[in-house]
Amino acid sequence: MKLLLILTAVFEVATGFALLAAPSMTVSILLGAELETPAGSIAGRIAGAALVALAIMCWQARNGERYGVATGVVAGMFFYNVATALIVAYAGLGLGLHSALMWPVLVMHAALAVWCAAVLLPRQRLDGAAD
Question: Which of 44, 46, 81, 109 is nearest to 101 (CA)?
């Protein structure tokens, strides 16, 4: 199982960062189709953030009980929520996209990121003290 989780993490992080950096090119290479709108690029970037979050979860889970799978899930969700909030902010402020739910979605992801950080920071301190 450990090798499965490591290989999954490697492939997903590579694809995820490629989608975050260049969503149109990545989709074109992988699927042979173009993302033709700014909204398509935003959706591609959010998908990239989700893949990186999955990679973080797999990487953390590779050692089983030693670090705790739940910590890996929260770490992955922290990355996803921060990335999604930043991507949505870029969509609204940088690309001029608008919807009634855009800003509430941004606030929700930012709040969830803060909550994830609040859960992870005490664990980080405890792990550091145990070393």
Answer: 109
∠ CA 57-61-64, nearest 5°, is 165
The predicted-structure confidence for 64-93, as pLDDT tens digits, reads as follows 766 667 888 899 999 999 999 999 999 999
Residue 131: pLDDT over 60: no
Give the CA distances from residue 28 to residues 16, 35, 106, 117, 121, in Å, rounded to whole numbers and listed in that order.
14, 8, 28, 35, 39
Domain boundaries defined on the chain: 2-130
Tokens of 93: 């402020």
Query: Cα separation of 57 and 54, whole Å?
Result: 5
6-25 per-position pLDDT tens digit: 999 999 999 999 999 999 99
